[in-house]
Write a structure and sequence with these properties.
- The protein is built from seven helices and five strands.
- It is an alpha+beta fold and 192 residues long.
- The protein has two domains: 111 residues, Aspartate Aminotransferase, domain 1 (Alpha-Beta Complex), CATH 3.90.1150; 60 residues, no CATH class.
- A five-stranded antiparallel β-sheet has the order 1-2-3-4-5, covered by helices on one side.
- Strand 1 and strand 2 form a beta hairpin.
- Helix 4 crosses helix 5 and helix 5 packs across helix 7.
- The chain starts with 5 loop residues before the first helix and ends in a 7-residue tail after the last helix.
Amino acid sequence: MNPKVDFYFSKAQKWHEEIEKLRMIVLDCGLTEELKWGCPCYTFQKSNIVLIHVFKEYCALLFFKGVLLHDANGMLIQQTENVQAARQIRFTNVREIVEMKPILKAYIFEAIEVEKAGLQVVFKKTTEFTIPEEFQNKLDENQALKTAFDALTPGRQRAYNLYFSAPKQSKTRELRVEKYMQQILNGKGLND
């Protein structure tokens, strides 16, 4: 146990018992406990393996390279369609965790083996993401905007594409594009 991480468990209200149980299971697998992104993160030889985090509806173990696990029990969940590597196992009560302890340990040990083997996730290239029609129209109409967008780093391009694609209504997508056109022209990313 890492004392720097203790506060996370002591401050938890809704999922306190569940995350304490998850902590014991993960530590029993020989991983190093660290605090990353404000959450308990467990590493093997300085490589991230699994993270414990909480949400309103559930708590979860997040496997950083979960997409590479065999998922024999069909338990791994992709948080959103845009998450490429990580996968979660979600919990809503401590009983589930206790009953699944041997399975959870098997998943953790498999994740360690994936890391030992040096396996890497192959990520989609930025060019493989779909540009929303509303943004594509602006790029086609405005050569300066297209040039500025093409000059952004792939990560910044991806962030804009995901942000512009998120709304269900075309009008909302258009408003988002309009709002950020000048920022793109200025060579800035979505969060700069």
